[in-house]
From TrEMBL:
GO terms for cellular component: cytoplasm. The lineage of its organism: Bacteria, Bacillati, Bacillota, Bacilli, Lactobacillales. L-histidine binds at E81, G82, T83, R114, Q128, E132, R259, Y263, Y264. It comes from the Bacteria. This is Histidine--tRNA ligase. CDD domains: HisRS-like_core, HisRS_anticodon. Homodimer. Belongs to the class-II aminoacyl-tRNA synthetase family. One of its GO terms (molecular function) is ATP binding.
Length: 429
């Protein structure tokens, strides 16, 4: 029997995994500057954590969740997105307490799962990097989160980006808009797709997110939520636009954007790229928004929140299509060449000592001749070689060579163990 990975998953093998590490490290470095700290939540949660927050009519709940009953007859789901699990952890661990600094800022990285048709940049097991910030209902925090997302993508080398912006308003705004949207769509019910007909009265905003072409043509002429905002919601949105302008972050208001999860309100945004990876069409790389009310849904106190999620697979496809080389951090500092069986123990001791001292070091394990070992050192991109033969071992000396320049000196064997960094300076002097 031939075993293969499940459909919609991929193996991230050496040579590729370094690219993932590079993206993750860039995110960690940036998030640290913004004072976001990592949180790690379970890969599976109670089904209700997501069905209650994502919306019973959303595609995630109705079509895409991997859910099952465990041996204790508990209804479990593999997490389809990151926010709801973080909110559950925020509530359960009482991270809203008076001793906690506001806003509470956190980030996560890891796999998510959705049962959908696999395609480029969209797998059944996919990976997200996301941030969440709780406790502040202020346009300044909205803009900080968007600025951080923009800076992250720029730091990775992406230049041609578009920030699409919209608002879903507060509860009163949404109620007024919902009524106007139903009044517009009801006479057109027969022309809507089956999914949109089902959602029309349950959650008409879901119709705006339909991928059906006929639905999209109908939606294009629908009322705009901007015309139904309360003064408070309007002021919040104006504040966001004003602050983005102050930071010289260009944006476009897209009134048709609603996002795919029901918990969003007020500010929502998408960062898009028109990379040739997706045929030169504007494709979302990173998206998020404000979700005031979500903490209360999961049993916590009234707490505003905002965040974003970034798809790592999609980002890597774009970086590759744009020819952007990520720093892989897999350079080899030293390759130890051993000549003769008598040097085996000492070369092993040298390699281990160099690693302990903080150098990336490697040696031969296949009993190759010196020429083969030097070829291996060159292929691995070693900066230096240490060559130890039986004669050098007897004299307690070793040859240190810089591969790029070809410069070589003989150094005391004991000095390699105690002051290798100084030997490198001596070689380069």
């Amino acid at each position: 029997m031939k075993y293969q990975r499940p459909k919609g998953t991929t193996d991230i093998i050496p040579g590729e995994s370094e690219k993932w590490q590079s993206v993750e490290q860039a995110a960690r470095t940036l998030f640290k500057r913004y004072r976001y700290h990592e949180i790690r939540t379970p890969i599976f949660e109670s089904f209700e954590v997501f069905s209650r927050t994502s919306g019973e009519t959303s595609d995630i709940v109705t079509k895409e969740m991997y859910d099952f009953y465990d041996k204790g007859e508990r209804h479990i789901t593999l997490r389809p997105e990151g926010t709801a699990g973080v909110v559950r952890a925020y509530v359960e661990n009482k991270l809203y307490g008076p001793e906690i600094q506001k806003p509470f800022k956190t980030f996560y990285m890891g796999p998510m799962f959705r049962y959908e048709r696999p395609q480029a940049g969209r797998l059944r097991e996919f990976h997200q990097i996301g941030v969440e910030a709780f406790g502040v209902d202020n346009p300044t925090l909205d803009v900080e989160v968007m600025a951080m997302a923009v800076e992250l993508l720029h730091s990775l080398g992406l230049k041609d980006l578009k920030l699409a912006l919209n608002t879903l308003g507060d509860n009163e705004s949404r109620t007024r808009y919902r009524q106007a949207l139903i009044a517009y769509l009801e006479p057109l019910t027969a022309q809507l797709s089956a999914d949109s007909q089902e959602r029309l009265h349950k959650n008409p905003l879901r119709v705006l997110d339909s991928k059906d072409q006929q639905d999209q043509e109908i939606v294009a002429k629908s009322p705009r939520i901007l015309d139904y905002l309360t003064p408070e919601a309007q002021a919040h949105f104006e504040g966001v636009k004003e602050l983005l302008t102050a930071l010289e972050i260009p944006f476009e208001v897209d009134t048709s954007m609603v996002r795919g999860l029901d918990y969003y309100n007020h500010t929502i945004f998408e960062l898009m790229s028109n990379s040739k990876a997706f045929g030169g069409k504007w494709t979302t790389v990173c998206a998020g928004g404000r979700y005031n009310g979500l903490v209360e849904q999961l049993g916590g106190p009234e707490t505003p929140g905002i965040g974003f999620g970034l798809g790592v697979e999609r980002l890597l496809l774009i970086l590759e299509a744009e020819g952007i080389q990520l720093p892989l951090n897999n350079e080899l500092d030293v390759y130890v060449v051993g000549i003769g069986a008598a040097t085996n123990v000492e070369t092993l001791k040298l390699v281990q000592s160099l690693r302990t001292a903080g150098f990336n070091a490697e040696r031969d394990y296949l009993k190759r001749k010196p020429k083969g070992q030097f070829k291996a050192a060159s292929r691995l991109g070693a900066h230096f070689t240490l060559t130890l033969g039986e004669e050098e071992l007897a004299q307690k000396e070793v040859n240190l060579k810089e591969m790029e320049s070809g410069k070589e000196i003989k150094v005391p064997l004991g000095a390699v163990y105690t002051k290798f960094a100084e030997l490198i300076k001596q070689l380069r002097a």
